[in-house]
Fold this protein.
Amino acid sequence: MHNQLLHPTAYKKLVSLFLLAVMLFVSRSSYAIDLNPFDVVAPPPNKNFFSAALIHSELEGTYARGDKSSNTPTLSSNQIQLRLGRSYSIGGYTGLSFVQLPVGMLRPGGTASSAPTDYGLGDLTLATAFWPYANRQTRTYLGLAGYLTLPTGSYSNQQIYNFGAKRVAGDVQIAYQTALTKNLDGMLGIDAMWFGPNNHVGRNNVQLTQKPLYTGQIGPIYHINPSISVAATYLYVWGAETALNGLSNNNALQTHRYLLSAVATTSKGRFMLQYGTNIDTQFGFAETRRVILRYALAF
């Protein structure tokens, strides 16, 4: 009995599909846990919280070691993130737990326009935050949070672009915010995300593993008046090197991003408009635009 070898053209196509899949994982993983204005502020206890976010992002072109490939696939992502949570008090300290579920679609374009669009439910996230220090008079807060993401989203190993990731992920985050002047706050945060394996990449069910992803973020929040605030956040992302069947892809991230936010707090809830993009991309897709509309209500 002899081994049947792949035709060179088929082999190149298979390798290309694997690389695109890896690039997609890297690009999507580069957005860990973004801190929005007021996220670091401890909420009042014994409140229910509901929020909905409409997120549109556009990715164009793939990069390797900072160089853009001549192959120019595009990817358009639209999703709604629904979140429901509850705050509470434990031993005089504030805690908050919530569940978040995204619903949306991924639409390939450019040189990837022949790939099918994927849509449906995304991966469910469970989270708990805890504030060991919260001083409302000085507007100073120290918060810790843990996140667990479950593989509940749409996924098929028959296609490259999937709304779900088919793996478990966990994240630990620490954030600090304090008043710098009467109307200006400063925020900084850092988090580390770990990934379980995806054992169903490609038609041959190749195993994809990924090293931890780290994100550092810092920025000012300016309160124009008690109802209107604006913020700017710089984010640096690194790590998250992937491997296929244990063979490293040498594609560790080193990405610079920014996110601008405008917030209106009203008696009907909090409204937030955000815009962001990548400043520099070393590996994977480059996000050229991210627009987010958020609404949050406490009751």
Notes: The first strand starts at residue 48 and ends at 64. Residues 8-29 form the longest helix (22 residues).
